[in-house]
Write a structure and sequence with these properties.
Blueprint lengths: L3 E7 L3 H11 L7 E7 L6 H8 L4 E4 L6 H10 L5 E5 L3 E3 L3 H10 L4 E10 L6 E3 L2 E3 L5 E3 L14 E3 L6 E5 H7 L11 H11 L3 E12 L9 H19 L2 H24 L3 H13 L1 H14 L4 H6 L15
Parallel strand pairs: 1-2, 1-4, 2-3, 6-12
Antiparallel strand pairs: 4-11, 5-12, 6-7, 6-11, 8-9, 10-12
Helix pairs in contact: 1-2, 6-7, 7-8, 7-9, 7-10, 8-9
Length: 323
C-alpha cells in the first residue's frame, strides 16, 4: 500500500491531463499511487489516461456527480496515510509532493498543508498561497493576482488549503468526515477547513511546494451552474459553520459582502443563477441548521479562536508594474 494517494477529479479535462499527470510521474517522492475519478467525461479522457498512463487507477462514475462526491469516492478507494488532492488543470513542481508530505509528517498538530500556487501562464504571479477568511466571512485566495515578490515565502499557519492542490492526513477524514456532498462543487473545501479548525486541527502553508494553476479552466465550461453554486454554497458554509455570536456581531458586513458579489453577477447577466442559488439555500436551510447543531456539539475550540481566523484583509487591486 502506498503511503500517499493522489486523487484527481476529472470532467472533460483531456486537454489538461497530459501536463498534470506527466508532472506527477516526475515527482521525487515515489511512495504514492494516483486515482483519477471521472465524472462522465465524453472527450476521450478515460481512453487517453488508460493508454498513456496505465499506472493511474481510473474510477468511472458515469455522470457529473460534483467535486465533493467524486473526491469522497476516491478517498474511499484508498487506504493511504496521506491523501493528496489535485485539480486536473494543475502542473506540479518535481518536489511538490515530497515537501507537502514531509511538512505533515513533522507537524502532529496539522491536519492539512497548502502549497504555493502560481499562475500557469505567468509563473511570476500568485494564484493562491492558501485560503483565508475576511471579517465578513468571505473566503479569499491569499495573494491572488499579485506578483510573486516573496511576500508569501514564509511557512505559516493559515485557515485552510485550496482543495485543488493540498495534502491531508487520512485521520482528519476519519475523525471529521469527508467533504459535504450537498455542496456539489465550490466551497466544500472551506466547509472542511471550518470543520478541521473547529475540531482542533491546524493547517500549514508550505511555500517551497509549488504548482501552476490554470484557474477557471473547468468553470468556464459550466458558467451558469457555477454562479448558482457559488451563491448557494457561500450561504451554506456561513449557516453551517460560523458561530451565532459571530454572525450577529458581523451580520452587516456578512450581508453587504454577499450583496456586492451578487450584484456583480447580475450586472454580468447572471440573474437566474443568483436567484436559483438563493432559492436553493433557503430550501435547504433546515438541512444546514441540523448539521450546524451537530458540528457545534463537537466543537473543540473557542469562538474567539474561530474569529481570530476571520481577519484577512485582501488587497483588491494588484500592482500593475510590468504585468
Amino acid at each position: 500500500m502506498a503511503e500517499t494517494s493522489v486523487i484527481i477529479v476529472n470532467l472533460n479535462g483531456r486537454e489538461h491531463l497530459e501536463a498534470c499527470l506527466n508532472s506527477l510521474f516526475r515527482q521525487t517522492y515515489s511512495d504514492c499511487d494516483v486515482v483519477l475519478v471521472d465524472n462522465g467525461s465524453t472527450d476521450g479522457s478515460i481512453e487517453f489516461v488508460k493508454t498513456r498512463f496505465p499506472k493511474v487507477n481510473v474510477l468511472q462514475l458515469g455522470r457529473n456527480t460534483g467535486f465533493a462526491y467524486a473526491t469522497n469516492r476516491g478517498i474511499e478507494q484508498t487506504a493511504s496515510s496521506f491523501v493528496a488532492l489535485l485539480n486536473n488543470d494543475i502542473e506540479v513542481d518535481q518536489r511538490w509532493l515530497e515537501r507537502l508530505v514531509s511538512t505533515l509528517k513533522g507537524s502532529p498538530e496539522a491536519g492539512a498543508v497548502a502549497c504555493k500556487m502560481l499562475n500557469f501562464s505567468n509563473r511570476s504571479v500568485i494564484d493562491a498561497a492558501g485560503d483565508a477568511l475576511t471579517r465578513a466571512a468571505m473566503a479569499e485566495a491569499r495573494g491572488h493576482g499579485h506578483p510573486d515578490r516573496g511576500q508569501y515565502d514564509q511557512a505559516d499557519y493559515i485557515f485552510g488549503p485550496c482543495a485543488g492542490a493540498a495534502v491531508y492526513k487520512r485521520e482528519v477524514f476519519d475523525q471529521i468526515g469527508l467533504f459535504d456532498e450537498s455542496f456539489f462543487a465550490f466551497y466544500e473545501d472551506i466547509d472542511l477547513d471550518f470543520r478541521m479548525q473547529s475540531s482542533g486541527w491546524k493547517v500549514l502553508y508550505e511555500p517551497s511546494a509549488l504548482c501552476y494553476h490554470k484557474r477557471g479552466a473547468t468553470v468556464r465550461k459550466m458558467q451558469r451552474m457555477a454562479v448558482m453554486l457559488h451563491v448557494r454554497n457561500n450561504i451554506f458554509y456561513v449557516v453551517k459553520n460560523i458561530p451565532g455570536r459571530t454572525i450577529v456581531r458581523r451580520f452587516p458586513a456578512i450581508l453587504a459582502s454577499r450583496l456586492k458579489v451578487w450584484l456583480a453577477y447580475v450586472r454580468n447577466g447572471n440573474v437566474t443563477g443568483v436567484l436559483r442559488g438563493i432559492a436553493e439555500a433557503v430550501l435547504k436551510m433546515p438541512e444546514m441548521l441540523s448539521k450546524r447543531k451537530a458540528l457545534k456539539a463537537r466543537r473543540k475550540v473557542s469562538v474567539v479562536y474561530i474569529e481570530s481566523l476571520m481577519n484577512f484583509v485582501p488587497h483588491r487591486t494588484p500592482p500593475t508594474d510590468g504585468l
